[in-house]
């Protein structure tokens, strides 16, 4: 094997070994409620559990932006 062929092979292997864009994009969900978070204590847990059941894990492949209007 000639030097030029070896360098080409090595460069191709290096480029092949680094997957560009292989990570799943992180999704963001906005949760907005007109009441306080204390009004429905089970809603937050049930919402997160429902997402977990479908494969979305907060902090892993999902971000949730929680907003509570506190009745205002």
Task: Write a concise synopsis of the structure shown.
The chain has 72 residues and is of the alpha+beta class. The protein has helices at residues 3-17, 41-53, and strands at residues 27-33, 62-68. It has a two-stranded parallel sheet.
The proportion of residues in beta strands is 15-25%
Shape: rod-shaped
Topology as a string of helices (H) and strands (E): HEHE
Described by strand count, sense and barrel closure, the largest sheet is: 2 strands, parallel
Task: Provide an overview of this structure.
There is one protein chain. This protein is α+β, with helices and mostly antiparallel strands and 72 residues long. The chain has a domain at 26-72. 39% of the residues lie in helices and 19% in strands. The protein has two helices and two strands, in the order αβαβ. The chain has helices at residues 3-17, 41-53, and strands at 27-33, 62-68. Strands 1-2 form a two-stranded parallel ribbon. The protein is rod-shaped and about 75 Å long. The N and C termini lie far apart (75 Å). The mean pLDDT is 77.
Give the topology.
Blueprint: H1 3-17, E1 27-33, H2 41-53, E2 62-68
Parallel strand pairs: 1-2
Highlighted features:
72 residues, alpha+beta, two-stranded parallel sheet, 2 helices, 2 strands
